[in-house]
Structure formats: structure tokens, C-alpha cells
Amino acid sequence: MKERWRPAVILAGLLFAVYVVARFVAWKAASASAQDRVALIATAGVALLSGVTAFWWARRYPMPRVIGDLAVATGVAALLGVLVGAFFGSKPFAGGAWLLIGRFGLFVGLSALGALLGILLVMALGLDWKSQAWKRHADNIRRKPPRMIRR
Q: Disulfide: which of 4, 18, 50, 72 matches 114 by Cβ 3.0-4.6 Å?
């Protein structure tokens, strides 16, 4: 069981680390333009990390497992980022509940968008688990010699 969930936990930790580092750097940044740049880089980092992970996992595992693992990792990272990551800024929970809900939705949405793009790229290239299985099946059928029919 430990081997099954280890990749999802590692992904959740990496997504959380990207979010926390971005919040801390944005808090220490002096100007508003620097904070905007840090937020943009963190957003791209979350989406890129989710996309690369989805690309990698979709090549190795069936799609329901990939989607489930990505959903668990993204959900855990978003909850940790919103609840614990708020303490790595200047004023935690100062914006109210709607700001936290918005941050959670933005984190999950961007991560889902990156994962969707990664999965679609794997499918478009024909490298996903199901396409490879179909390819092996077609190769096996072509390898068999034709049957002789006796009359």
C-alpha cells in the first residue's frame, strides 16, 4: 500500500512546496509588480508540474488510476497550501473565507488544467496505456499466420 500512494504524496508535497515558496517570496517582495511576477511563475509552476506528472503517469498506468492519483495529490496540496500556506504570508486569513475558497479553486483549477493538457498530449501521441495495449494487440494479431481451412 505504501508503494501505491508514494507518488501521489510526493506530488502533493512538491505542489505544496511550490505554493509555499511563492507565498513567502511574494510576501518578502517589496513592489506589487514583483509580487505579480512571483504569482505568475508559481501559477505556471503548479500547472507545469501537474502536466509533466500527468504525462509521465498516463504512459505507465490506466487512466482511472492516473486521474484518481492526480485528484488526491492536488486536493491534499490545495488544502495544505490554503490552510497551512497562509501562515507563510503577511496576514493569514485576512481576506476572509471567500479569498480562501478562491485560492483553493484557483489552485485546483490550474493543476487540473495542467494535468488535462499532459493527458491529452499523451493521448495525441498515442503513448498512453490503452493505446499501447491496442498496439500490442494489433501486432499480435498480425503476427499469427493465417489458418488453413480444410474442406
A: 50
> What global pTM score does this model have?
0.81
Tens digit of pLDDT at every position of the chain (151 positions): 678 889 899 999 999 999 888 888 877 776 777 777 887 888 889 999 999 999 999 998 999 999 999 999 999 998 888 888 777 765 667 778 788 888 888 889 999 999 999 999 999 999 988 888 889 998 888 887 777 777 6
